[in-house]
Amino acid sequence: MRRLRMRQDALVTSDTERSSAAIYRNVKAFTADPSRPWAPAFAVHGGRFLVAGCDEEVTAAAHAASEEVEEVDLGGGLVIPGIIDAHFHLTSTGESLQRVDLVRARSLDEIQGLVSAHAKANPNLHWVLGKSWLFDSVPGREPTAAMLDDVESTRPVLLDANDFHSTWVNSLALEALGITDSTPDPAGGRIARDASGRATGFLEETAAELAWAHLERETTSDRHRQHLLDAIAALHAVGVTTVIDMGLGPTSIETIAHAEAAGELDLRVVGHWLMSREGPTAQHLAQVSRAVELTHLHSSDQFRMAGIKFIVDGVIDGCTAHVAEPYTTGAMPDPIWDYEALAPVVAAADEAGIQVALHAIGDAAVKAALDAIENAYRVNGTGPSASGPNGVEGRRHRIEHIEYCDPADIPRFAQLGVTASMQPVHADPAIQDNWRAMLGPERSAHGFPAAALVASGARLVLGTDAPTAPFAPLPNLFIATTRRSALDPDLPPNEPKNALPLSDALAYATAHAAWSCFAEDRLGSIAPGRHADFVVVDPDVTESDPERLLDAAVLQTVVGGRSVYRKG
Ligand SMILES: [Zn+2]
């Protein structure tokens, strides 16, 4: 018997009756489907979209799919596809939710005050952990253990910098980490020392990674699980339904896989194995083989391993990104992966048919990354139109961050079919002073060239790189579309010539992000056959002032047709 049930409650989905179809009408749906970008209604069945279109079409499709049809009136609300954060770190974001956030601290006094209050409020923590302090807030941009030793004298303190490429510890933390004055710098990293050779409490790149690995070893699997669940809940509340995780290791893979097996993974995760720079090429090639195995082991639409990730260089704030001309400080560091080390490993991954993602922030690193991909195509006889996984066109290798690259290299992204993965939130004017000072005005004028990349025909995708930055997508889109600050909107915009139209930016955070991980036929748009991942947003940010992106609310988040978050 055909049954029609009307629901006036605007925020309901067919949670329990998975065999029934649901019609969502009286909506303004941005579909991110170029063939039909807007629709007044859509229908869902079996966790997937049936169709988006006019009432008649949607009604016909729903009744053809199921005997039982539920109707939901969304009161004219804006619906967008579930956001895909194209560059994310899932378990570390969950862990960071417990840390004291220092991004708004503007002086050492403020940092010390926040850390002290956090320490007092959490007497049971073994470590006092913080995140996101800015170099500009530390005297001489040189943090030292001594600055923290008086703040917390009984427990180790570890505070990650806003760039997540360096960390600042107190003396007890140096001791707990086993770092002494005679500990040598690890390859690709630096233990900062004073004139007399004493470790001062600042750890860069792979030296910071040693500290993070230590913390990870001290964390129980129960805690890892809790971090993951905390991150998922926080992502649902802001409308994110998929993340591309750009740095998975054995522990995080195990944590995510366990959650999937336990039915706790209400989020889609596409993962990249984080390559270790340690050892010779043979060891790097063995990591590629392991990553290929992982793509076979984890291949569901809930958790899928897609490829590998290199951290080719550092970051501009710390003058560790690989640049062609020296920083204004005179520094000109080597990359972590030089072209000679990179090229054979990128070629092996390309030949094996897995995706390569390259963190490359300085112009010289971007050039080396593009060169390595071009070399891989040459030696493998592949190319941007060679088939990728499942015979779909394109290798879809990607360069992560895109902060400063040689304008002459911009056309190479489209030519090589390389995805440009950018985090607008890193271009927030409130955190750009040091960045711009390190590069100088001429190079800064080319910072975060979003519109220039799009104009060149490149595929652009947006993410946040959380926990290095806040992960709420609507403020991230505010920065992308205005180049103004989400932290202090009164600041002048950051190179507004690279602002993007909002509907384009939304597509880069949904449909294009799905394309970037070979999921455009399953994710990223409100279109037939795609998983029914969508978000109800209030107010309609596509018609209000851009400022409304900063305070708009996510009313509901739906993953696979199932409501996973409702406001209030
Ligand atoms: Zn990252």
Structure description:
The chain has 19 helices and 22 strands. The longest helix is centred in the middle third of the chain and has 18 residues, at 221-238. It is globular. It has 568 residues and is an alpha/beta fold. A hairpin with a 2-residue loop joins β21 (553-559) and β22 (562-566). 55% of the residues are buried. It folds into three domains: 3-82 and 531-566, Roll (Urease, subunit C, domain 1), CATH 2.30.40.10; 99-217, Diaminopimelate Epimerase, Chain A, domain 1, CATH 3.10.310.70; 220-516, Metal-dependent hydrolases (TIM Barrel, Alpha-Beta Barrel). The strands form three sheets. Strands 1, 2, 3, 4, 5, 20, 21 and 22 form an eight-stranded mixed sheet that branches. Strands 6-13-14-15-16-17-18-19 form an eight-stranded parallel sheet. Residues 87, 89, 246-247, 465 line the site of zinc ion.
- Relative helix content: 25-40%
In percent, how much strand structure appears in the residues? 15-25%
Counted beta strands: 22
CATH homologous superfamily of the largest domain - what is it?
Metal-dependent hydrolases
Largest sheet: 8 strands, mixed
- Provide the list of bound ligands, each named once: zinc ion
* CATH topology name of the largest domain: TIM Barrel
| Shape by Cα distribution | globular
Q: Which consecutive residue ranges, at least 5 long each, have pLDDT under 50?
A: 1-17
| First and last CA, distance | 36 Å
The total number of structural domains is: 3
Tell me the number of helical segments per DSSP (H or I, 4 or more residues long).
19
Structural class: alpha/beta
CATH structural architecture of the largest domain: Alpha-Beta Barrel
